[in-house]
Amino acid sequence: MSHDLARAPLASMLDRRAFLALVGAAGAATLAGGSALAAEPKRGGTLRLSALANPSSLDPATGGSGFDHCYLWTIYDTLVEWDYDTLKPKPGLAKWSFPDPKTMVLDLQPNVKFHDGAPLDAEAVKFNLDRNRQDQRSNVKADLTSVEDVVVTGPLQVTLKLKNADTALPAILSDRCGMMISPAAVKTHGAASDRNPVGAGPWKFVSWADNQKVAVTRNDNYWRKDRGFVDAIEFNIIPEQATGLRSVVAGQNDMAFALPARLKPVIQRAKELQVVSAPTLYCIQFYFNTKRKPLDDLKVRQAINFAIDRDAFVRATMAGLGEAATMTLPKSHWAWSEAASKLYPHSVDKAKQLLEEAGLGKGFELTVGSYTDQDSVRRAEVLQEQLGKAGIRLKFTRGTVAEISANFFNQGYDMLLSAWTGRPDPSMTYALGFDKGAYYNASREATDELSDLIRRSRESEDLKERAAVFDRIQQITMGQALSAPIAFQYELDALSPKVKGYKPDLLGKPKFEFVSLE
Amino acid sequence: MIRRRLLQAIPVIILATFFVFGLLKLVPGDIAVTLAGDNATDARIAEIRAMYGLDQPFLVQYGGWLLKAVQGDLSKSLLSGEAVLTSIARCLPNTMLIVVLALLLAMAIGIPLGILAASRPGGWIDGFVMSVASLGVAIPNFWLAMLLVAWLSLSMGWFPATGSVPFTENPWESLRHAILPAVALASGGVAEVARQLRSSLVEVLASQQVRTLHAKGVSPASILWKHGLKNVSVNLLTVISLLANRILAATVVVEAVFAIPGMGGLIVNAAIQRDFPVVQGVVFVMVLIVVSINLLTDVLYSVLDPRIS
After folding, report:
1. A207 plus A169 within the same structural domain
2. Which residue range(s) make up the domain with B180?
3. Please, which pLDDT band fits residue B309 given cuts at 50, 70 and 90?
4. What is the pLDDT of residue A510?
5. Does the predicted TM-score (pTM) go above 0.90?
6. Strands A255-256 and A80-82
7. Which GO terms describe its molecular function (chain B) (predicted)?
8. Cα A368 to the chain's mean position, in Å?
9. Which of A206, A355, A464, B96 could connect to A360 by a Cys-Cys bridge, CB 3.0–4.6 Å?
């Protein structure tokens, strides 16, 4: 991949497909499904990564941080996988089918073994799914509430009996819930499985020193030969992202990922580095507490949505590396709703008029929770200015993520300026963020219609039918202005020239299965 | 004396850890929310609180920690499950290496500069040294650290930009990694040692005792080295021991710039996420170190000046 080609998307803002086409044209990348566009990638070498956070746990069931996935994908294979560009589920360790709406059948790949040599069979899958559903330490119980029972119906077949139709399950099984851990290892290690992960993925766990390094090494018995090219991966944990990038510039690491847009000029100055940038589901947004005055008034919430100049926000805070968000899904997503996207064109006059009608024409103040990092402060300043033009004064309280988010979701502020990290299935986003009683819905309230639609969004397997339900959901969440999505942040990565075949994904949680080193 | 001072350290450690524990519990923010993760529900958060005893009264939580700590068990990180003692055993050598190196640098450069300046007070050397020293105090060490990385690592490629290597594994690489952070930490120290040494030395050299020595015909070199320095050594020791504690504190920022997995990073991460066993463990060890430095200083006082007992 030549440097100019790699950088071209940044300059011209081509979309993901165009970018990948370019990469393909350069003839140096292995693309989706390992299709042989180029010669077989070179095997061997140690991929050294700068990673920005310590894992919360290396056991998929007990962890909680969205950043864990980049570690977990290396050690664990998932029952279901997704397409990198669209997140459409496709078979992984298992093929799935729904013989009737309340039954899901998983047929497993034969001859797959965990790193400890134990077979990955139907019993092992049942053990994992039951553990995810019921174990006290499981953090993913909420993902599997629709499952009534898991039954072994053959040596390589598992049948899930469902309480209600749930077509989000394939996507759910492409995430933490579908990562298969060795039952023997869980039984041996107990709670210590967090630090002794045994999966069936392309790499085996070697070591984890907190806030310093996680190391994995090749699993020679991996069942697929078209991926897992590097011999070992070292994640060097560097929380300060500018420092992480410097380690790549200095040649101490091969790649830094999930960088903030403000570092784009630094990458470009280091002429030999490759830049990769691509859309993700990471959505920067205002969360509203619709129970608090004056946000209990629809007109006020709508006014805020009208007053935000999303395109200007992308230019000012993301160096253009983002997409204006008109809902919690980006335009390239299969469930994006055209009708919802047209609801709030930027208009200060419209915002003022709505506030006038709400009796707040003279201006008013809103309390907002936000974080202390550099990027959050910059975002807050831009939004303060934009909403100020409509007479809305934002009063920020800043602190750590732990402090501020806990405070907001326990009724501490009117709004929260934060982000929603993507989920493999859009229904997860709406169930976790907007449904009745959901933790990320600060008011904990939702109309029956919305709750019913969220449930119905999981009834059909047909994406067109599902998209039609999501269209209605988005028209409600945006029509009722239950939040104010602002912008999707693009992934930004810096790679040394010897890194080949890296492919970003829409979820924004990188996999390294196709990466090779020259 | 040593035993008495060691006994005095016990209430200091208890007070410090109690105070920090109290602060962590007073500020809003809840580790249970972090632990519940991206898919948090109200029920899950409550379940986690009960599982980790986070719903217990403040004193019960602190007492439980203290009871284990006095038995040598600093418990485990709530977030990652790593034993706190393991984290500290790994991070402390990295931090101590740059602290000791910085202290040695501060003395190796600061002391000659101070003597040079004091030997001709008011002269151009004095003026020059003192301006450089002012600059050293004024420059923030994180800024200097970034300049050093940009220049000596990224442009010249002489030193690694980030990370650390254990000294026992490869002493040469270990020092190469530690030198830039140590320089950044030492800059303020050089200035301080030089200025303090100069001012006390000037005072001693202007004293009646020194005038008498001059009158007796003692050579200026002998006056400076034998009489002058001996008289200011107690002052110097005070400066250096204070400096040691301050450099220890400054590692928090410098470690972040150089991505050194040290005590600073450990406590900052833990404090931000309210991982109190880790915070407590680090505070515990840090208090021990500071108390030891002070103790060592006191012992050295009595060596340097027998009148102090």
Report:
1. no
2. 93-199+235-261
3. low
4. 94
5. no
6. unpaired
7. dipeptide transmembrane transporter activity
8. 24
9. A355
* Sequence-separated (6 or more) residues with CB below 8 Å from residue B190: B105, B106, B109, B110, B113, B133, B136
Query: Are A36 and A161 part of one and the same domain?
Result: no
Q: What is d(CA A283, CA A379) in angstroms, rounded to the nearest whole number?
A: 13
Whether A20 shows a pLDDT value over 50: the answer reads no
Candidate from B39, B162, B258 with C-beta closest to A140: B39
ipTM for the complex?
Answer: 0.79
Residues A211 and A337 in one domain: no
- The Cα–Cα gap between A259 and A278 comes to 12
Which of A139, A189, A193, A210 to mutate: most B Cβ within 10 Å? A210
Residue B196 has which token pair? 């303090």
Chain B residues whose beta carbon lies within 8 Å of the beta carbon of residue A210: 77, 80, 82, 87, 90, 266
A272 touches B at CB < 8 Å: no
What average pLDDT does this structure show over A359-364?
90
Instruction: Tally A–B CB contacts below 8 A.
Output: 140
| Chain A residue closest in CA terms to B24 | A403
Please, where are the H alpha helices in A359-462?
374-388, 401-409, 426-433, 448-456
Query: Which band of pLDDT confidence, cut at 50, 70 and 90, is reported for residue B302?
Result: confident
The CATH number of residue A122's host domain is 3.90.76.10
If asked whether residues B146 and B180 sit together in one domain, one would say yes
Q: How far is CA A208 from CA A71, A236, B82, B258, in A?
A: 11, 10, 9, 20
- Residue A378 falls within a domain, yes or no? yes
Interatomic CA distance for residues B127 and B120, integer angstroms: 10
The two tokens of residue A17 are 């497909």
Q: Are A348 and A390 in contact (CB under 8 A)?
A: yes
Shared domain check, A223 and A135: no
Overall domain count for chain B: 2
Q: Residue A437: pLDDT band by 50, 70, 90 thresholds?
A: confident
Verify that A345 and A478 share a domain, yes or no. Answer: yes
Q: Do B101 and B180 sit in the same domain of this protein?
A: yes
pLDDT for residue A98: 95
